[in-house]
């Protein structure tokens, strides 16, 4: 595909055969799951960390408290389509530890609460994640250069929130390993941690997100995952919603198997794509400039099988990529074309793959 500068198709051959086979569980995954279970059981015995009852100096009631410049709390910016909340989160009174690197608060701690948590656990970095912002809108969790164009909706906010948690878990694990290397093998506790915050009314949403992380990201059996989440959040995921989420993960993998990457390496101040590929000739979807590749790029997921026609709009001018497949319509206009094949099958292994893919796509800056 090296000669096709503007259009790069992703090979999906053999996907259906792989999806049909049961997924083999690696020994490393089994060991990690056992470690997570032991850490969950250990941390559930800890009492919640009660926060100071007075507000931070300089805090204005009714506004979201911001970390002080000297704080080591790093806010999670979230995807580009992250909505803004209609009001600030209430102040959290306590922080509960779920894992050595994961804490949960029903509300937003102020500066003193963040600093007390970081100091008590000797954290070099405390990443904060506002789960309520996922719950308030249809957040896909996809970065700006990836667009879901399927006829169905993009992955639901619950799946996007679980992907963000799983990706932050990887960062916390890397921070823990770096801390052990720097402080010696006998050091205890992580140096990086995540504080997940949410509005109290979003407790059911948080329970579903945590259940997704336990079952599909870490491979915990469903009954055990539901029991742990019920103890943590005080409510269990609804069985019907859990089944719908698994089907949605399978649908995401089918959309991923029909992915297409568009590239425009010919310059321009702005590049957009229009046509059947993105929902019609009235829909303009911008490409994102990739400074490393020095070209405009956009990855499309969820394309319907069949033939798609499209064109580029470069600095306001409609044009086609002459190095990609072309087709002339009845009026003699040249359009780029591509044919998308069928996707793969479903199954629990495919749902697990969908969770891993969304965690990979989750944009963390």
TrEMBL record:
Region labeled Disordered — which residues?
54-89
Outline the extent of the AMP-activated protein kinase glycogen-binding domain: 260-341
Gene3D superfamilies, per the entry:
Immunoglobulins
| Source organism superkingdom | Eukaryota
For this UniProt entry, which residues form the secretion signal? Answer: none
Compositional bias per record (Pro residues), positions renumbered to this chain: 76-89
Q: What is this protein called?
A: AMP-activated protein kinase glycogen-binding domain-containing protein
Alphabetical list of InterPro entries matching this protein: AMPK1_CBM, Ig-like_fold, Ig_E-set
Coiled-coil region list:
none
């Amino acid at each position: 595909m090296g000669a096709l500068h503007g259009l790069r198709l992703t090979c999906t051959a053999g996907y259906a055969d792989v999806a049909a086979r049961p997924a083999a569980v690696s020994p490393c995954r089994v060991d990690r799951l056992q470690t997570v279970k032991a850490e969950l059981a250990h941390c559930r015995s800890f009492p919640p960390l009660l926060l100071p009852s007075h507000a931070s100096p300089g805090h204005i009631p009714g506004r979201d408290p911001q970390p002080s410049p000297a704080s080591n709390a790093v806010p999670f910016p979230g995807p580009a389509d992250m909505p803004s909340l209609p009001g600030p989160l209430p102040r959290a009174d306590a922080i509960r530890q779920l894992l050595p690197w994961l804490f949960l608060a029903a509300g937003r701690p102020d500066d003193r609460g963040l600093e007390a948590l970081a100091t008590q656990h000797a954290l070099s970095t405390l990443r904060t994640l506002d789960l309520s912002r996922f719950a308030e809108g249809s957040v896909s969790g996809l970065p700006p250069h990836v667009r879901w164009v399927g006829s169905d909706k993009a992955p639901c906010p619950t799946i996007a929130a679980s992907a963000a948690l799983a990706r932050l878990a990887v960062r916390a694990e890397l921070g823990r390993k770096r801390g052990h290397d720097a402080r010696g093998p006998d050091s205890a506790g992580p140096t990086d941690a995540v504080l997940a915050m949410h509005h109290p009314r979003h407790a059911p949403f948080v329970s579903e997100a945590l259940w997704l992380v336990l079952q599909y990201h870490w491979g915990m059996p469903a009954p055990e995952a539901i029991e742990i989440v019920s103890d943590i959040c005080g409510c269990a995921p609804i069985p019907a919603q859990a089944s719908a989420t698994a089907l949605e993960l399978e649908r995401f993998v089918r959309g991923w198997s029909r992915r297409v990457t568009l590239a425009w390496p010919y310059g321009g101040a702005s590049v957009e794509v229009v046509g059947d590929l993105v929902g019609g000739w009235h829909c303009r979807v911008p490409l994102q400039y990739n400074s490393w590749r020095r070209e405009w790029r956009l990855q499309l997921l969820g394309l319907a099988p069949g033939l798609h026609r499209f064109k580029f709009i470069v600095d306001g001018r409609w044009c086609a990529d002459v190095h990609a497949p072309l087709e002339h319509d009845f009026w003699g206009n040249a359009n780029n074309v591509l044919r998308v094949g069928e996707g793969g099958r479903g199954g629990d292994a495919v749902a697990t793959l969908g969770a891993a893919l969304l965690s990979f796509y989750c944009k963390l800056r």
